[in-house]
Design a protein that fits this description.
heterodimer; A: about 350 residues; mainly alpha; 3 domains; 3-stranded antiparallel sheet; 10 helices; 5 strands; about 50% helix; B: about 220 residues; alpha+beta; Phenylalanyl-tRNA Synthetase, Chain B, domain 3; 4-stranded mixed sheet; about 35% helix; globular
Chain lengths: ~350, ~220
């Protein structure tokens, strides 16, 4: 039924279409459909190869639409059906190439941003760049952060850190790549459309704090507490113990200096914990940090002999300003939650 | 429609027949088969260990790259040639890889299924098995006729005319790369099975022989 090809007798039709005077030439044109089908199959094979390679090279970018509808097979396709398959594959390949080119461009921009972040971290403060935008797998995020927390922030010591590991899935809810693996700060979200870094001084329109993600609970769990930078070594406990010993020694010897050192040793672990928890978005300590800053400022003011009325004004101003800044920072870290116990 | 026994060491693989029109249309398409005695039960420890070892080779990246390998690619292309979308009805090797990713391993089932799976995973060439008892003569490929049932019995499905089917001398026993007739499936009572494979254009003879040999080796393993 398929053998032999199709013999088409054009005679007068061919001549008429070609614009020649109509004569009975007896011209017989045999169209070898099988050869045409074989040729189309070769084209289909080439397109399929290119489409498969494109999909493989796009990994792990994500799903690339490469499906082309079947023709109710398995059966021997006619010339017209093979042409449709070939055309569909060609269309799909062009669309996939366009998508892939767009992805490549975005990845190039992301790599450029990463290089700028590494070269000038101080100009890209708190910028978060998910590794997935660089075409890398996993849930890692490049994040410009201050060294030593608040100290680094005040001193202008910034560096790029690569976090790793995907967030744990929430019970009863399927993990959503967009909401979990691509979690990023407000600044990064704002730039997600255009990954090229804006200069630090560029005016920015205020963006309202986004709503807290549903995965974050108002009451922090102990298991979520950020680990200390020095790991599991009992540094804080040792410092507190040393402070207590010095306090006793200071009390016995009536040495104010020793008691002062003891006080500092006892207070330091607590201050470090407060800063660490606040900056990690674990628990909010806005008022505590503001109070500490105010106390330091007032102490310095007293030491240099500032007038009491001025000191009160400075103290109130520092307390209010630092409180607002710390609260905003905490909201940025938690995705909109201003207080967390 | 005579089966041709190819030369070589025993056991010999036979070439199935192809309808003349199909042979003209797909000159490199072949069906190769062999009949072997089997016994029911679990596969041997060595075969199960082999499946475990093969499971370790598959990763997500490997699953994506499978379609670019020569043998799986040849089957993908042939699927396109006969009007099947290989992303909807996956080629056997791609389906096996997806199942491996979903299940976390190549699951051991029984002696025959495990042998077929090992051969598929190692070579990329799919092998199927039919119960030898109800078969009549060598297997072949042809187009289905109007109203023709696939297999026998009251549950036999009808294939639309023109569909490419596997057939013995008497009737269609399965759709090409599709469902095999339930009446001809291998069961616990089967004493011999007909192993067959479809060699599509682009798949070398060596790979087909290797797949069949691997399958026979797994079936014979104690």
């Amino acid at each position: 039924m398929l053998g032999g090809g199709v013999i088409a007798v054009y005679t007068a039709h061919v001549v008429q279409l070609a614009g020649y005077p109509q004569h009975d030439t007896g011209l017989v044109v045999e169209i070898d459909e099988r050869a045409a089908r074989a040729d189309l199959r070769d084209q289909v094979a080439r397109l399929e190869r290119q489409l498969s390679e494109l999909l493989a090279s796009a990994f792990p970018f994500g799903p690339l639409e490469v499906s082309v509808p079947g023709r109710a097979g398995p059966r021997v396709l006619s010339l017209g059906e093979l042409e449709i398959v070939r055309d569909d594959l060609g269309d799909r390949l062009r669309a996939a190439r366009r998508t892939f080119a767009g992805v490549g461009e975005r990845q190039a921009q992301a790599r450029l941003l990463l290089e700028r972040m590494l070269l000038e971290p101080g100009h890209h403060r708190f910028v978060r760049l998910p590794a997935s935008e660089l075409g890398e797998g996993g849930c890692g995020v490049y994040h410009v952060r201050p060294r030593l927390g608040l100290v680094g922030m005040l001193a202008g010591w910034w560096h790029v850190k690569l976090s790793s590991g995907c967030p744990r899935p929430v019970r009863g809810r399927a993990p959503q790549p967009d909401s979990l693996c691509h979690t990023m700060g407000r600044r990064s979200r704002k730039r997600s459309g255009d990954l090229v870094a804006e200069p630090r001084s560029a005016p920015t329109t205020p963006v309202p704090a986004p709503a807290a993600p549903a995965t974050l609970r108002r009451k922090a769990r102990t298991s979520e507490r950020p680990p200390a930078p020095w790991g599991s070594a009992p540094l804080a406990e040792l410092a507190t113990f040393a402070g207590l010993v010095l306090f006793v020694v200071g009390a016995v010897t009536s040495s104010i200096a020793v008691i002062g050192v003891a006080f500092v040793l006892i207070a330091l672990p607590a201050i470090e914990l407060v800063i660490r928890e606040h900056f990690a978005g674990f628990r909010s300590h806005s008022l505590m940090i503001a109070g500490l800053m105010t106390a330091v400022a007032v102490a310095v003011g007293v030491a240099i002999g500032v007038a009491h009325s001025l000191l009160v004004a400075i103290g109130v101003a520092i307390l209010g300003t630092v409180f607002v800044l710390m609260r905003r920072l905490f909201m940025r870290r938690t995705g909109g939650m201003g207080f967390r116990a | 429609m005579e089966a041709v026994v190819t030369a070589g060491p025993e056991p010999a693989f036979a070439d199935g027949w192809l309808d003349a029109s199909l042979a003209e249309e797909y000159p490199h398409l072949r069906l190769r088969e062999i009949t072997v005695p089997v016994r029911a039960g679990r596969s041997s420890r060595s075969v199960r260990r082999r499946l475990e070892h093969l499971s370790g080779r598959i990763s997500g990246a490997e699953a994506v790259a499978t379609r670019t390998r020569p043998i799986p690619h040849a089957y993908r292309v042939f699927f396109r040639h006969v009007g099947i979308d290989p992303d909807t009805q996956r080629t056997p090797i791609e389906q096996a890889v997806i199942d491996r990713l979903v299940d976390g391993e190549f699951k051991a089932r029984n002696r025959i299924d495990d042998a077929l799976l090992v051969a598929l995973a190692e070579t990329g060439v799919p092998i199927w098995a039919l119960d030898e008892a109800p078969l009549d003569g060598p297997l072949g490929l042809r187009e289905s006729r109007a109203g023709e049932p696939i297999g026998t019995g009251e549950h036999a499905d009808e294939a639309p005319p023109g569909r490419l089917v596997l057939a013995d001398a008497e009737r269609a026993v399965g759709v090409l790369f599709g469902k095999l007739a339930p009446s001809h499936e291998v069961s616990k009572e089967s004493v011999a099975v007909r192993l067959f494979t479809i060699q599509v254009p682009g798949v070398p003879d060596a790979h087909v022989s290797e797949a069949l040999w691997t399958c026979l080796e797994c079936l014979a393993a104690e």
